[in-house]
Design brief:
Blueprint (H helix, E strand, L loop, with lengths): L18 H9 L1 E3 L6 E8 L5 E6 L5 E7 L2 E7 L6 E9 L2 E10 L1
Antiparallel strand pairs: 1-2, 2-5, 3-4, 3-6, 6-7
Length: about 100
C-alpha cells in the first residue's frame, strides 16, 4: 500500500440548546416493547400542552400519528399496524423530544 500524503479533516458541530430532551428521557417510558395491539406511553403532559406520537416504518415512511394531551399514561392502539420493526418519535412544537425503536409482533 502506497501512502501519498496526509489528509486533514476538520468537523464543526452545531448543537442546538434543547433542554426538553433531558427532561423527557428521564420521565418517559414506552411499554410493552415488543407489543401486539396496544402500546403505552408514560409521559407527563401538562394541561394545555400537546405532544405528537409518530410511528415510521424502517425506511422512514410515516405509518401513523396520534396527538397526546394532558395526563401521565397514554395508550396508543396499534392493532392495525403490521408486524415489524418501527421507529417512533415524540414531537412537541416541531421539535423531536424522543425517538426510538418499537417492535410489533
Amino acid at each position: 500500500m502506497l501512502c501519498l500524503g496526509i489528509i486533514k479533516l476538520m468537523v464543526h458541530l452545531c448543537i442546538k440548546n434543547t433542554p426538553n430532551i433531558s427532561l423527557i428521557q428521564t420521565n418517559f417510558a414506552i411499554f410493552p416493547n415488543p407489543t401486539k395491539k396496544l402500546v403505552n406511553l408514560r409521559l407527563e403532559i401538562k394541561d394545555g400542552e400537546e405532544i405528537i406520537f409518530e410511528l415510521h416504518d424502517i425506511v422512514g415512511k410515516k405509518i401513523m400519528g396520534k396527538r397526546l394531551s394532558s395526563g401521565l399514561l397514554h395508550g396508543v392502539d396499534i392493532n392495525s399496524v403490521q408486524h415489524g420493526i418501527y421507529l417512533y418519535r415524540l414531537i412537541k412544537n416541531e421539535e423531536v423530544l424522543q425517538s426510538g425503536k418499537l417492535i410489533i409482533e
